[in-house]
């Protein structure tokens, strides 16, 4: 009976120690997440400031934009934060003056 009580107490202490360890690990992960979130927000703010300071340029030749009349499409894609060339070309194609070949 006495050994059963000691065993139960030992199991309870191990469970409490494990719970405390998980709690501390959870707090550390929360702190890391908060720090990473703050860093990402700072990076986003730095990128926005750099975008306005430097100004965006088009990676399309002016003759391409004049021919397709797609400057508005490029402006919209860039305003959405799209800098992927595939997305820009897709938007340009959607708003182009030329009918697709069938």
Structure description:
- There is one protein chain.
- This protein has 2 domains: 1-55; 56-102, no CATH class.
- It is 77% helix and 0% strand.
- The protein is built from 4 helices and no strands.
- The model has no long low-confidence stretch (mean pLDDT 76).
List the topology elements.
Blueprint: H1 2-54, H2 62-68, H3 71-79, H4 85-94
Helix pairs in contact: 3-4
Please describe the biggest sheet, giving its number of strands, its sense, and whether it closes into a barrel.
none
Distance, first to last CA: 88 Å
Mean pLDDT: 76
- Reading the helices and strands in chain order gives HHHH
Report the principal-axis shape.
rod-shaped
Keyphrases for this structure?
102 residues; 2 domains; 4 helices; rod-shaped
What's the quick description here?
The chain has helices spanning 2-54, 62-68, 71-79, 85-94. The chain is mainly alpha-helical and 102 residues long.
């Amino acid at each position: 009976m006495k050994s059963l009580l000691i065993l139960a107490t030992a199991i309870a202490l191990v469970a409490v120690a494990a719970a405390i360890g998980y709690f501390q690990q959870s707090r550390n992960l929360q702190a890391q997440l908060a720090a990473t979130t703050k860093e990402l927000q700072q990076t986003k703010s730095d990128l926005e400031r750099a975008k306005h300071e430097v100004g965006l340029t088009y990676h399309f030749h002016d003759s391409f934009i004049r021919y397709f009349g797609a400057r508005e499409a490029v402006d919209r894609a860039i305003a959405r934060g799209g800098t992927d060339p595939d997305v820009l070309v897709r938007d340009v194609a959607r708003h182009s003056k030329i009918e697709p070949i069938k």
